[in-house]
Write a structure and sequence with these properties.
Layout lengths: L16 H50 L5 H14 L7 E6 L5 E7 L26 E9 L3 E4 L2 E4 L15 E4 L6 E2 L5 E2 L3 E3 L9 E4 L3 E3 L11 H12 L5 E11 L6 E16 L7 E2 L20 E7 L1 E8 L11 E6 L2
Parallel strand pairs: 5-12, 16-17
Antiparallel strand pairs: 1-2, 2-3, 3-17, 4-10, 5-9, 6-7, 6-15, 7-8, 11-13, 12-13, 13-14, 13-15
Helix pairs in contact: 1-2
Length: about 350
């Protein structure tokens, strides 16, 4: 009679299964950790490259807008310098600086190892799992935009007086006389139709808001702007300290009507470096309105009811690092906003 044996033996082929499972889990955990570290490195690299592309695109667009020339060599140098300075190892690859689209700059950056010169990220932990090296890139597009609206001192210039064109940084010094259809006078005494006019200032705060493509009402008459005394005195203080007074004004191409029914059609915005004015008699309504202001008798405001502003149109470039939007609706009159489009 056979004896019954209690219990049973484990099959030989199950021995060591737990150890194998632990080894697999360790490998998975190590791989996951390596991937997490590598992803963090990739994101950090991409952020550096994006900062370099953004700053490079803005810098190149600013050079192009300044009127000092915008060659491919200048663009490449500016983009490379800023792309490198935004990298932790002071090295990155600028793959291209594209100037082919009018009023737009596209900069593309890519990975560069500052030590080995390799075009990919080094010391990737996941390489232990036989993954390939990673190459990261970024793209930025900066555009030259032209203001389509604004608020400023309630005065508008005729486009007949605007003379800033091409790559010039400044226009001619000139005297611009009051109200449309009067005169713009250059240093040679040449007179062309044009002039300037007061804009409606319903709040009496020396501030008028305008928009390109629309018409804005006029404030007729030869009266001095009493509500602007504080601003005019500020201009005087600034000029007395040796600083430039540069103000951005709306520019109109046509004027219709007369008196309180007069309207100006705004086409854009131009910046004027003011050297003197005569909006009335006595300070602060007149300042440097004699030949001493310019050294040229052709550019002096006359006495009595003569009203004029003396100075020159200048290029003015400002940077808006906010992303979004395309070109403004105004004409290019030398006042440019450089901003990231994407």
């Amino acid at each position: 009679m056979r004896r019954l044996r209690h219990g049973s033996r484990k099959p030989k082929n199950e021995r060591g299964a737990a150890g194998a499972m632990v080894a697999v889990m360790v490998l998975v955990l190590v791989g996951a950790g390596a991937m997490a570290v590598d992803v963090g490195q990739i994101y950090a690299e991409r952020a550096e490259l994006q900062n370099g592309a953004d700053s490079g695109a803005l810098a190149v667009a600013q050079i192009c807008a300044s009127g000092g020339g915008c060659t491919q060599a200048q663009a490449d140098a500016a983009a490379n310098a800023l792309a490198n300075s935004n990298a932790r190892d002071n090295a990155s690859t600028v793959k291209s600086v594209d100037l082919s689209v009018a009023n737009q700059v596209t900069v593309k950056t890519s990975t560069l190892d500052g030590t080995s010169g390799a075009g990919f990220l080094h010391k990737m932990f996941a390489s232990a799992l036989n993954t390939p090296p990673a190459t990261v890139g970024a793209t930025a597009v900066a555009g030259l935009t032209f203001p389509g609206e604004g608020g400023a001192f309630p005065l508008a210039f005729s486009d007949e007086c605007w003379d800033l064109a091409g790559s010039s940084a400044t226009g001619s010094m000139q005297k611009i006389s009051w109200k449309p259809g009067v005169t713009c006078t250059n240093p040679s005494g040449h007179v062309v139709p044009g002039g300037w006019g007061w804009l409606d200032d319903p709040d009496a705060d020396c501030y008028a808001v305008t928009t390109t493509g629309n018409v804005v009402g006029s404030d007729p008459g030869n009266n001095k702007p009493m509500q602007c005394a504080t601003i005019l005195q500020g201009w005087i203080n600034k000029m007395s300290a040796g600083d430039d007074v540069e103000v951005t004004f709306p520019v109109y191409d046509t004027s219709t009507g007369t008196g309180t029914g007069a309207l100006y059609h705004v086409i854009g915005y131009a910046t004027f470096r003011i050297l003197g004015w005569k909006f009335g008699n006595g300070s602060p309504y007149e300042y440097r309105n004699t030949t001493a202001a310019t050294g040229n008798s052709n550019l002096a405001c006359n006495g009595g009811n003569d009203r004029c502003i003396i100075g020159q149109f200048v290029k003015y470039v400002t940077i808006d690092a906010a992303t979004g939007g395309g070109a403004g609706s105004g004409q290019n009159l030398g006042t440019v906003i450089v901003k990231l489009i994407k």
